[in-house]
Amino acid sequence: MPLLNVRELLPFPNGDNTSHTIINGVDFNLTALKFFNYTIYSNNTISNRSKCYLIFDQFKPHMFSNGSWVNGSTCYIPYYGIKTRGYASIAFGTAFGMSIMFTLINLRKHGKRFVREDKRFRIVGRRWQWYWMLFAAACGMISCLTGIDVDRNYLQDLSIILQSFFFTLMVPGTLAMVWESVRHWGSWQERQLVDVDPYSYPDDDTRTRTEFWLPLMFYLIAWLNFFMTIPRSWNAFRQQNTPEQQRDIAAPAATNNRTKAGAIIAAVAWFIIVYSLWHSLKHYKRRNTGFFGKINGFCRDCPTKLFVVIILLAVRVAYGLASAWIFELTIMKDDVMIGWPFGLGYGPILAIIIVFEVFGYIEENEDKVIMEQRRLRGIEHDRELNLTKKPGWWNKNFTNRFKSDDERLRDMAAIDNSGATTTTTRRQPQNIEMGDMTLRNRSRSRPPEDPFRDQSSSENSRQSSVAVGARLDPSRTESDAASAKSGLTGRTLTAEQMANARPQNVRSMLDV
After folding, report:
1. Residues 59 and 116 in one domain
2. Is 441 part of any domain?
3. What is the DSSP letter of 390?
4. b vs e for 421-439, b when ≥16 Cβ sit within 10 Å of the residue's Cβ?
5. Where is the composition biased (Polar residues) (predicted)?
6. pLDDT at residue 24, rounded to an integer
């Protein structure tokens, strides 16, 4: 493909008469061509600025007097073969498409919930990174696949617009992707410390206020970047058919003030990401004193993946700043040297996604890590208290843990119907018919007492001993007291019994 399809106005060739012209062996009505403002250009096209047709080699269109065309081929068809830009677009587009599959796998792995969700640490917080990765990869795939026809089109049309649009749209998505990764890493460090001691970090200190305002500031900056670079006229990038069009139309549109402001805003968002990482290291990792001590602490505590992706993001932001001032570096130029946009534009973003995919495959789900940490802390606490847990098979319902949900529901229904599960069938109580039980009424078997008779001193002493014994053994109080009576009260005495009876001491008129 030539660097440019140089286009100049040409006069209509002569025909059979003054009202006709012959173009590529086809006879045209010259009056109709001039009426519809058609002009022949030196790049073998005929156009009136709304329609454009090829008029060389096998392209032989015909126009009727009413302005309609037959057998016409538009100027924007893929005419040339795939060049270097097309091959690079296929390679990067395929890589971005494959990354979407691995991102979905990691999203399923790290987005699952295994413990009760805490209001302070929402599960969606660790999913946002993968959502933005899907967005950035989709934009990269669309941008690359639509860029295949940029080298193939005879004249530039929609392909370069779509490639430039989604290439620019990748920047705020990539910024948000890296931001969510850095922010969530700090939240993950806090969650591990709070899980050990819920009162280790208060909710109303400077740290909390900083973590509240930083996301708002970042997304405001990212939205400004989107607002400065996306809502604009993209038709100017089609006008690159001559050097004059590139210089006067495409270059000013690619390096205008909105593009420069968007690049500067992206750099500000990058600094906010770096500050967020420093904030997390300061509050959730061990502090070091001295210059070299802080460097050693940073190398020890800073995650490798975050350090790498921040460096790669800096490369992409720097390329955006350079291309905002130098038109020869931007992908919006149709004959740009592809090493600039693909090596410094697509390359860092694809490398960031690959780094996240690799570490997402290596790292474990955070809920599972929390469960393992709790288990280890429980073992340590049991060791301190000299407690030994019984093995799992010690439980009589050990087999129930392997049952499915339907089997557990059937066991619950069995409880309602029979009062016991199948595992306790052998222990079900048998039916027992209860009969009347004969109980002894001690109050009736005790002889009645005579309220008008005094007891002798021996009986009083015996009753006192019985009372002491009753206090020592309350269960024997009633029986011993009953046996201590003389048994004469309330009976009809005979003459022999009266003779043998001991004399009664009369102390008052009541004893008579």
Report:
1. no
2. no
3. P
4. beeeeeeeeeeeeeeeeee
5. 418-431, 489-512
6. 85
Q: Which residues contact 263 (CB under 8 A, 6 or more apart)?
A: 317, 320, 321, 323, 324
- Regarding whether 170 and 39 lie in a shared domain, the answer is no
User: Residue 358 is part of a domain; what is its CATH number?
Assistant: 1.20.1070
Non-local (6+) Cβ contacts of 437 within 8 A are none
Shared domain for 364 and 341, answered yes or no, is yes
Return d(Cα 395, Cα 296) in angstroms, integer: 51
- Distance from C-alpha of 229 to C-alpha of 304, rounded to nearest angstrom: 31
CB 141 within 8 A of CB 196: no
pTM: 0.73
Domain count within the chain: 2
If you average pLDDT over residues 287-294, what whole number do you get? 78
The DSSP secondary structure of 3-40, one letter per residue, reads S-----EEPPPP-SSTTEEEETTEEEEHHHHHHTT-EE
Q: Are 59 and 119 members of one domain? A: no
Answer yes or no: is 486 within a domain: no
Residues 37 and 105 occupy one common structural domain? no
Task: Identify whether residues 61 and 94 lie together within a single domain.
Answer: no
Do 231 and 150 have their domain in common? yes
Among 372, 396, 422, residue at a domain's last position: 372
- Yes or no: say if 489 and 450 are a contact pair by the CB < 8 Å rule: yes
For residue 506, give every residue at least 6 positions away whose Cβ sits within 8 Å of its Cβ, in sequence order, or none: 512
| Kind plus residue range of the DSSP H or E element containing 482 | helix 477-483
- Measured CA to CA, the distance from residue 153 to residue 30 in angstroms comes to 29
Residue 344: DSSP 8-state: I
Q: Which residues of 259-278 are buried (b: 16+ CB within 10 A; e: fewer)?
A: bebbbbbbbebbebbeebbe
63 Cβ neighbours under 8 A, 6+ residues apart: 28, 29, 32, 33, 36, 38, 69, 72
Could you tell me the residue range of the domain that residue 122 belongs to?
84-372
In a domain, 145, yes or no: yes
Taking the C-alpha atoms of residue 366 and residue 112, their distance in angstroms, rounded to an integer, is: 9
Long-range CB pairs of 59-67, under 8 A, 24+ apart, other chains included: 59/24, 60/24, 60/25, 60/26, 61/26, 62/26, 62/28, 63/28, 63/29, 63/32, 63/33, 63/36, 63/38, 64/32, 65/29, 65/32, 66/32, 67/32, 67/35, 67/36
Q: Decide: 356 and 133 in contact? Cβ < 8 Å.
A: yes
Cα–Cα distance between 512 and 150 in angstroms, integer? 141
Task: Give the single-character DSSP code of 70.
Answer: E
> Mean pLDDT across the stretch 396-418?
73
How large is the average pLDDT for residues 32-47? 88
> Mind listing the pLDDT tens digit for each residue in 165-224?
999 999 999 999 999 999 999 998 989 888 888 888 888 888 889 989 999 999 999 999
Strands 39-41 and 45-47: antiparallel
Would residue 149 count as lying in a domain? yes
φ, ψ dihedrals at 484, nearest 5°: -80, -10
Residues 48 and 103 occupy one common structural domain? no
Tell me which of 21, 38, 70 is where a domain ends: 70
The 3-state secondary structure of 119-158 reads CCECHHHHCHHHHHHHHHHHHHHHHHHHHHHHCCECCCCH
